[in-house]
Amino acid sequence: MIQFLDLHKINKRFQNEFENAFSMALENSNFVLGDNVKNFENEFANYCGSNYCIGTANGLDALTLILKGYIQLGKLNIGDKVMVPSNTFIASILSIIHAGLKPVLVEPDPKTYNLSIDAVKSSYSKEVKAIVIVHLYGQLADMSAFLEFTNRYNILLIEDAAQAHGAKSKQGLAGNLSHAAAFSFYPSKNLGALGDGGSVTTNDEALNEKIRLLRNYGSKTKYKNEIIGANSRLDDMQAAFLSIKLKELDKDNERRRVIARRYLNEINNLKVKLPFYDGSSNHVFYAFVVELEDRENFINYLDSNDVQSLIHYPIPPHKQTALHHFSHLNLPIAEKIHKRVISLPMSPVMTTDEINWVIKTINNY
Ligand SMILES: Cc1ncc(COP(=O)(O)O)c(C=O)c1O
Question: How confident is the model at residue 251 (pLDDT cuts 50, 70, 90)?
Fold first, then answer.
């Protein structure tokens, strides 16, 4: 079976370095917010080109803490509306709810799957105080259009960069294209830990300070609690693993793009709609997503030919039981996307034979 993502093979490459990092951690026994977190925060801030990086327990918390940080700073108020794409992973929407804000689900551009600036313009109202943009499947959203819009209305622009570590445009890297960005280091991500992890990147010094407090019980000095915080620290061991893997991120992303280019050039089946890609580094192919009319048949066919696939995501957020109060919304683009999409195997450790087999199998469908 060609795995969708062979996590074992991905991480096996770093086994010796991981073992050394573990031995050192055991020696130092500084398990919470130790040097590994500080080092990774510096390295990842440098990598993204942003002034600050704050490690968090996961990507959902990173997003939530950005929003709560802005509430602490008086830049958002409980009950404010926040626009978010209707076809994102549910975490982007949950963060808004967890922070006491109101999500406004806005349709994507069906060509890129990213938030549509036209839809944003037509859904805007005075109560909207921020946009959470998602670089879905690893492709940067058109940030210059959104920045112009958020500057015009003086509202906040926040990136959900959970799927886009290392994606780059002329303006810079994911994580440094807005007021603040959230990353997930969930194991399957392009930069994935061996467990949960996340971070915020920002150039906003005041936000950096608030999030450092919020992630650690509202406390800078032990047993002194300045604000009502959470326990959402990036685990020190995970930070050490992430520093090791960060060195390989650009190469891994380039390997993903090489596979994507092969799929785009060589998959030639009218039943399979291939994704839009402009050929640049603005895509890191967290997922290579195709669309089909008869998704179930295709998945069964792939399965019987030893090709594993996944769906990102089978149910649109507003049709999830948890978000039943949004189920009345008319979001036909998201609904259509969620019915048709399938993600093909994509990882930096796929072999040429595996890539060839995926292409051949799809062309024979
Ligand atoms: C777009 C998006 N946002 C947010 C998250 C949340 O990250 P985590 O699972 O680390 O909480 C994820 C990943 O799971 C994601 O894909």
Answer: very high
